[in-house]
C-alpha cells in the first residue's frame, strides 16, 4: 500500500470516477471490483482499515447454518458459493475447519441438525446441475484449484475424541461432522485492499468523510478531514459509494432524503477467547447448545479457543461496542456446562464485541429475525449505499454495487473478482527462517501474508531485533510492526496490536500497561520518524486504546490487579 503521505497527495483535490467511503470488507470489495473494471478509485477510511465490524466478526467464511432455521435459503446458498470461491482465491487465508455437533450418552441426536446439514450439503454444490462427484473429476480439481467440502456425516465416539479430546469427561456417543471455513477478518480486508491497489485504487485511512459534495443536486464528491493534520480536503467523483456498515445511515444527510436511507438496527455480538491449556477443541470446532434452542460455537483460532457469539439488540455506542458482561457470562456458562469445566472471567485471554449492520424492516422484531441480506440503496442524488450482508458475501455485495454504477453509465464492464486471486499463496516450507524464528512463526506468517511474508522475514534477517516476538511466547514478530507502518498505513500501537496482528485479542493479560506496548511503539517510531517523546506518548496511549476497545474484560471488571499480567 502507498504510504499515507503519498496517498493523501494522490487523493486530495483530485478527481476520481468512484470514491468509496469506508475501509471495512465492503468498501475494500467495492474498491477492488471497481478498480478491476477500469474505474479510477479512491477509498477513504475514517479510522483504521477494518476498525469497525470487519475486525469484530466471528472470523467464519460460512453459509450460516443458523439462517436455515429462518428458511433464508437464498442467503445461505449465496454464502456457500462465496465460501468455496474464497478458499480458491485466498487458499492461504481462508481454510476449512471440521465442525462437530456432539451428542452425549443421555441424549438423542438432534435430528433438526441432520436435516439442516442435508440442506447445507445440497446447497454447497458448486453449480446448479453440477454435482460434487462431477466437479471432483474436473480439470480444476486435478490442478488443485477446487475445494469442495465433503458431505456431512456421523462420526463415532472414538473419532469425536480424536478430534476433541477435551470432550472425554462428557462421554460423547457420536457427533455430526460438517465443514465451514475460517479466516482472519482484518487480514482479508487488507489483502483485498492490496489487490485493489494493484488495479490502481488509492486508499487512505485516518480520513473521515464529513460531507457529500453536491452539484446540481447530484453527489459529486466528498469533503474529508485528515486525522493527523486536522486539514479538510475535497475529492471530486463521478460516483460516491457509501460502504460504512453500521454507520451507513449517518453519512450524507445533506444529499439524502430520510426515506432514501436504510435504517440500521444494530445488534451486538460478544466473543471471548481462552487459552488452549484451559479449553481446547483440538483442530475442530464445536457447536454448543446455549439454552432456548440457541447455539454458540467454540473454534480454534490462532492457537486460542474462540467462543461466540451472541445476538442482542444494541443501543449503546456503536463506535466502541464492548463485550456485554451478561453476554460474557452467558457464553462461559454454556461452555462450562458443555465441557464440564468451570472457567470464569479471570481465565479469559481476550474478548471483543461487534455490531452487526442489520437492516431494519421497521418491524420491531428481535434482531435475529432481521435480514442478514445486503441492501443497496440509491438516493436521488445518485449516492449509492451498500450495507448489511456478511463478511463472507463481500464479493457479491461489491459486484452488485459496481453493477449498478456500470448500468447507470451504460458501460460494458463485467466484474472480474471471481477470478482475481487474493494475495499469493505461500506454504510455510517455502519460507526461509532467519535465526531465532521458529516453525510456528513461519506457519502464521504464511497464513497471514502468503507470499508477502517474505517482506517480514527480510526485515527480520536484516535486523535481528525485529526477529524478536512482540509478546514472548507468541509467534508474531516485531518485524510485522515495521511492515505494518511501511506497507499497511499503520499509525499507532493499536493498529498493530489489535488489527495487523491480533495480539490485543489473543494475549490481553500479557499486554497490560504501557511498558508492554513500548517495543511496538519503538519500531513504529523508527519507521514513522517519531521523537523519543512521541514514542513514549504512543506507548502510553495503549492502555486507553485497550479500554476503548474493551478487549481485556478482566481488566475492565477491575480484577486485573489480582491476575497474572
Ligand atoms: C458479532 C459478529 C459476528 C460476525 N460474524 C461473521 C462471520 O463469522 N462471518 C461472516 O460472514 N460475517 C460475520 N459478521 C458480519 C460481518 O462482520 C459484517 O457484515 C461485515 O464485517 C461488515 O463490513 P462493512 O465493511 O460493511 O462494515 P465495517 O467493517 O463496519 O466498515 C465500515 C467502515 O466505515 C468507516 N466509516 C464510518 N463512517 C465513515 C466516514 N464518515 N468516513 C470514512 N469512513 C467511515 C468505519 O470506520 C468502518 O471501518 C459478523 C458480525 C458481527 C457483529
Q: How would you portray this structure in words?
A:
The protein is an alpha+beta fold and 565 residues long. It is built from 18 helices and 18 strands. The protein has helices at residues 4-11, 25-36, 73-89, 111-123, 132-136, 139-142, 157-163, 185-198, 325-339, 394-409, 439-449, 453-462, 478-487, 493-500, 503-506, 514-528, 532-549, 553-556; strands at 15-21, 41-44, 60-61, 95-104, 153-156, 172-182, 202-204, 207-215, 218-226, 232-242, 267-275, 285-289, 295-301, 304-308, 312-313, 348-356, 374-378, 384-388. The two termini are 35 Å apart. The protein binds flavin-adenine dinucleotide.
Number of strands: 18
Please give the share of residues in helix.
Answer: 25-40%
Poorly predicted residue ranges: 128-145, 365-370, 559-565
Oligomer: single chain
Helical run tally: 18
Radius of gyration computed on alpha carbons: 23 Å
Quick summary of this structure?
The chain is α+β, with helices and mostly antiparallel strands and 565 residues long. The protein is built from 18 helices and 18 strands.
Secondary structure elements and their pairing?
Elements: H1 4-11, E1 15-21, H2 25-36, E2 41-44, E3 60-61, H3 73-89, E4 95-104, H4 111-123, H5 132-136, H6 139-142, E5 153-156, H7 157-163, E6 172-182, H8 185-198, E7 202-204, E8 207-215, E9 218-226, E10 232-242, E11 267-275, E12 285-289, E13 295-301, E14 304-308, E15 312-313, H9 325-339, E16 348-356, E17 374-378, E18 384-388, H10 394-409, H11 439-449, H12 453-462, H13 478-487, H14 493-500, H15 503-506, H16 514-528, H17 532-549, H18 553-556
Parallel strand pairs: 1-2, 1-10, 2-7, 4-12, 10-18
Antiparallel strand pairs: 3-6, 4-6, 5-6, 8-9, 9-10, 11-14, 11-15, 11-16, 12-13, 13-14, 17-18
Helix pairs in contact: 2-8, 2-10, 12-13, 13-16, 16-17
Amino acid at each position: 500500500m502507498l504510504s499515507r503521505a503519498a496517498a493523501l497527495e494522490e487523493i486530495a483535490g483530485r478527481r476520481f470516477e468512484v470514491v468509496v467511503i469506508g475501509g471495512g470488507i465492503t468498501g475494500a470489495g467495492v474498491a477492488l471490483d471497481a478498480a478491476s473494471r477500469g474505474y479510477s478509485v479512491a477509498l477513504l477510511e475514517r479510522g483504521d482499515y477494518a476498525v469497525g465490524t470487519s475486525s469484530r466478526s466471528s472470523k467464519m467464511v460460512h453459509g450460516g447454518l443458523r439462517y436455515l432455521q429462518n428458511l433464508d435459503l437464498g442467503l445461505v446458498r449465496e454464502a456457500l458459493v462465496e465460501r468455496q470461491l474464497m478458499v480458491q482465491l485466498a487458499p492461504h487465508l481462508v481454510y476449512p475447519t471440521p465442525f462437530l455437533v456432539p451428542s452425549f450418552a443421555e441424549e438423542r441426536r438432534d435430528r433438526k441438525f441432520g436435516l439442516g446439514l442435508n440442506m447445507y450439503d445440497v446447497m454447497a454444490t458448486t453449480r446448479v446441475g453440477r454435482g460434487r462427484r462431477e466437479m471432483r473429476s474436473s480439470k480444476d480439481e486435478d490442478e488443485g484449484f477446487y475445494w469442495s467440502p465433503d458431505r456431512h456425516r456421523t462420526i463415532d465416539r472414538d473419532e469425536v475424541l480424536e478430534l476433541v479430546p477435551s470432550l472425554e469427561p462428557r462421554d460423547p456417543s457420536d457427533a455430526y461432522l460438517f465443514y465451514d471455513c475460517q479466516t482472519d477478518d482484518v487480514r482479508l480486508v487488507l489483502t483485498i485492499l492490496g489487490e485493489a491497489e494493484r488495479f490502481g485504487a488509492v486508499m487512505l485511512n485516518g480520513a473521515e468523510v464529513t460531507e457529500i459534495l453536491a452539484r446540481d443536486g447530484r453527489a459529486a464528491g466528498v469533503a474529508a478531514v485528515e486525522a493527523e493534520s486536522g486539514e479538510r480536503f475535497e475529492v471530486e467523483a463521478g460516483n460516491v459509494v457509501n460502504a460504512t456498515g453500521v454507520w451507513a445511515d449517518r453519512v450524507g444527510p445533506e444529499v439524502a432524503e430520510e426515506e432514501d436511507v436504510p435504517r440500521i438496527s444494530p445488534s451486538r455480538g460478544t466473543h471471548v477467547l481462552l487459552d488452549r491449556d484451559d479449553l481446547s477443541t483440538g483442530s475442530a470446532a464445536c457447536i454448543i447448545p446455549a439454552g432456548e434452542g440457541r447455539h454458540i460455537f467454540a473454534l480454534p483460532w490462532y492457537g486460542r479457543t474462540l467462543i461466540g457469539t451472541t445476538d442482542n439488540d444494541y443501543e449503546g455506542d456503536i463506535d466502541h461496542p464492548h463485550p456485554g458482561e451478561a453476554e460474557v457470562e452467558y457464553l462461559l456458562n454454556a461452555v462450562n456446562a458443555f465441557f464440564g469445566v468451570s472457567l470464569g472471567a479471570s481465565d479469559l485471554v481476550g474478548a471483543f464485541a461487534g455490531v452487526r449492520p442489520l437492516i431494519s424492516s421497521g418491524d420491531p422484531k428481535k434482531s435475529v429475525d432481521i435480514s442478514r441480506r445486503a441492501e443497496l440503496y440509491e438516493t436521488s442524488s445518485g449516492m449509492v449505499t451498500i450495507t448489511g450482508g456478511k463478511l463472507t458475501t463481500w464479493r457479491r455485495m461489491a459486484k452488485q454495487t459496481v453493477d449498478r454504477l456500470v448500468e447507470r453509465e451504460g458501460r460494458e464492464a463485467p466484474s472480474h473478482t471471481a477470478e482475481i486471486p487474493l494475495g499469493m499463496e505461500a506454504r510455510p516450507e517455502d519460507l526461509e527462517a532467519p535465526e531465532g524464528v521458529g516453525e510456528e512463526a513461519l506457519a502464521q506468517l504464511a497464513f497471514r501474508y502468503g507470499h508477502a511474508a517474505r517482506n517480514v522475514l527480510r526485515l527480520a534477517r536484516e535486523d535481528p531485533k525485529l526477529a524478536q516476538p512482540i509478546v514472548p511466547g507468541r509467534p508474531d514478530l516485531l518485524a510485522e510492526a515495521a511492515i505494518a507502518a511501511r506497507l499497511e498505513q499503520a499509525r499507532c500501537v493499536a493498529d498493530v496490536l489489535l488489527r495487523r496482528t491480533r495480539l490485543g485479542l489473543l494475549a490481553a493479560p500479557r499486554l497490560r500497561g504501557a511498558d508492554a506496548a513500548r517495543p511496538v511503539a519503538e519500531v513504529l517510531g523508527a519507521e514513522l520518524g517519531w521523537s523519543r517523546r512521541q514514542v513514549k506518548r504512543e506507548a502510553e496511549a495503549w492502555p486507553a486504546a485497550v479500554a476503548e476497545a474493551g478487549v481485556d474484560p478482566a481488566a475492565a471488571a477491575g480484577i486485573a490487579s489480582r491476575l497474572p499480567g
